[in-house]
């Protein structure tokens, strides 16, 4: 990665414009109209640099950060970040204690994970904030819709556990008109009603990723999880191309790739070039 200086001797390099990420997130915060944003910084912030990006997006108004594993969350804590951090997949059994010790929001999908979190919370003497993930049609992590209500009741009965949120993930929202999206939304709305009846305190419901953030404003709910859009990539292609729908925020790619030209040759017609001719 280069910040624009010190490129002498390099044949190719990547430049990251952190100020552009900050502007993107500020635009998205404005577009969210009061719904808090969680910006996903997993996988080294999609290759943009997790630590500098995390600080910039929080400055721009993001309220939560999302990571892919406990080690990423710990790295953020070690860099002085105090904002809520949600580990988007359940921690491995040997990382549950670390997750709770670092005050990371923990994703739970079954009773075994729930009990492990409770035991870790009691051991360190700290309340563990939990988000229950439900599979409404992604086929990845998550409790089934049928078992979610019972699992929530179980979580509520455990010492040291505070159920902060319930969430799911849309699998085809970047394909406008895909029939699975309204089905997932319907399942999640039914789940919200069931969970609200069971839980004695308000829950944070979240379903919208970047695609839903733009295309389905009615399901922004209590939190929006923003990934690609923060880095300047529209999760859906505007139609017509290069024409944004009215009111959409302007986001710009923060990463650019550069390479030096090392050779220019003129070849005769029909002359083979490279492997496989």
Beta-strand content: 15-25%
Low-pLDDT stretches: none
Number of helices: 9
Shape: globular
Question: Quick recap of the structure?
Answer:
With 277 residues, this protein is of the alpha/beta class. α1 packs across α3 and α7 packs parallel to α8.
Task: List strands and helices in order, with pairings.
Elements: E1 12-16, H1 18-32, E2 37-40, H2 42-47, H3 50-59, E3 64-67, H4 70-78, E4 85-87, H5 96-101, E5 105-108, H6 111-124, E6 128-135, E7 143-144, H7 145-157, E8 161-167, H8 180-198, E9 204-206, H9 210-215, E10 224-226, E11 255-259
Parallel strand pairs: 2-3, 2-10, 3-4, 4-5, 5-6, 6-7, 6-8, 8-9
Antiparallel strand pairs: 1-11
Notable characteristics:
277 residues; alpha/beta; nine-stranded parallel β-sheet; two-stranded antiparallel sheet; 9 helices; 11 strands; 35% helix
Could you explain the architecture of this structure?
By secondary structure, the chain is α/β, with parallel strands linked by helices. Helices cover 35% and strands 17% of the residues. The protein is built from 9 helices and 11 strands. The chain has helices at 18-32, 42-47, 50-59, 70-78, 96-101, 111-124, 145-157, 180-198, 210-215, and strands at residues 12-16, 37-40, 64-67, 85-87, 105-108, 128-135, 143-144, 161-167, 204-206, 224-226, 255-259. The strands form 2 sheets. Strands 2, 3, 4, 5, 6, 7, 8, 9 and 10 form a 9-stranded parallel sheet that branches. A two-stranded antiparallel ribbon has the order 1-11. Helix 1 packs across helix 3 (50-59) and helix 7 runs parallel beside helix 8. It is globular and about 75 Å long. It starts with 11 loop residues before the first strand and ends in an 18-residue tail after the last strand. The mean pLDDT is 93.
